[in-house]
Amino acid sequence: MTPRDRWLALLDGRPADRIPTDYWRTAEFHAKLVGALGCDGEDLLLRLAIDTPRTFGPHALRHHHPDDPKADIWGVRRRRINYGSGEYDEFDSQPLGNATTVSDVHAFKWPSPDDFDYAGLKNRLTADDRYRVVFVGHYEPFLLYCAMRGMQQAYEDFVISPEIAEAALGHIFDFHYEMNRRSWEAAGGKADVFYLAEDLGGQHGALFSLDHYRRFLLPGQRKMAELARSFGIRCFYHTDGAARTFLPDLIDVVGINILNPLQWRCPGMDLEGLVRDFGKRMIFHGGIDNQQTLPFGTIDDVRQEVRSVGRIMERARWICAPCHNIQAVGPVENVLAMYEEVGKVNLCR
């Protein structure tokens, strides 16, 4: 089987020849891995038998907001923050931070789906060899709203200024709905999966009440997933943390096909319980702990965890991957052990 065959087999409920795999990493860790193996790109993926997808999207024709040449199309500036062993881009401006009325929100110069090249996307997908699953499209509205509004204010808006949150999220939805529609139309049936995301859980509990999720985020997620299904495209859903409260809605209302990243050290996210309650209804993606085992465990710890997760997943469909991006402190040897060990696990679903 090709990597694409394995992913599609799980999505269709058919057996695969082995457990599919994926690779999520920071740039710093990836540089370490490339240095250790002496290869990169497709050669690296083939060497480690990694089935990671290819992601395509329309190229932007405009890269900056018309009122701020140092900001992205949403008016958000970013700044590189060094955390010791690596760097992250953090939001460094809040273009909607001073909005006090719905009129202020509507007056903002919102980006347009017209500012992207869909013909180029079509050409790139036509040239793709179909060896790997193809991801096209994305939607993660509240993260973007936090960037535009400021994180604290964004959460407060759900309680204090819900009309401002609804207006801004409406603009964000309209943009992504039309951009995704044009992208999937240009894909001409060559897109397999799209990336739907919102971090609903933290380390110790939910980040939202279920009522707030259902009012502000669920309707847009449902409509975007329905649009994807109209093009025959499946839904990969990402949420960190303790998100179990939201899984029935994500499965029954949104209709997700894959759940990532399975941070099982968080309350309610134990893998046995997830498999018992949801294992027949979606694919699990991730599950190899990236908070303790991969960065700080021994090679034997990693191998044992892969086998343990594999045993739990015998009653489910599983794509083996780290539970989020491998950090710069992660030893290369531990990651190599993860991919080597999963190849030995006798699970073909």
Write the layout of secondary structure elements.
Blueprint (H helix, E strand, L loop, with lengths): L2 H9 L15 H11 L3 H7 L6 E3 L2 E2 L17 E5 L4 E5 L10 H6 L8 E2 H10 L6 E6 L1 H9 L1 H10 L1 H26 L5 E5 L12 H21 L3 E5 L8 H8 L3 E3 L10 H8 L4 E6 L4 H4 L2 H14 L4 E6 L9 H11 L7
Parallel strand pairs: 1-6, 6-7, 7-8, 8-9, 9-10, 10-11
Antiparallel strand pairs: 2-5, 3-4
Helix pairs in contact: 5-8, 6-7, 6-8, 7-8, 8-9, 9-10, 13-14
Question: How would you summarize what this structure contains?
Answer:
By secondary structure, the protein is of the alpha/beta class.
Mean pLDDT: 96
How many helices in DSSP terms? Answer: 14
Number of strands: 11
- The N- and C-terminal alpha carbons lie at a distance of 13 Å
Question: In which range does the helix fraction lie?
Answer: 40-55%
Radius of gyration: 20 Å
Low-confidence stretches: none
Overall geometry? globular
The assigned structural class equals alpha/beta
Give helix and strand order, one letter per element, not per position. HHHEEEEHEHEHHHEHEHEHEHHEH
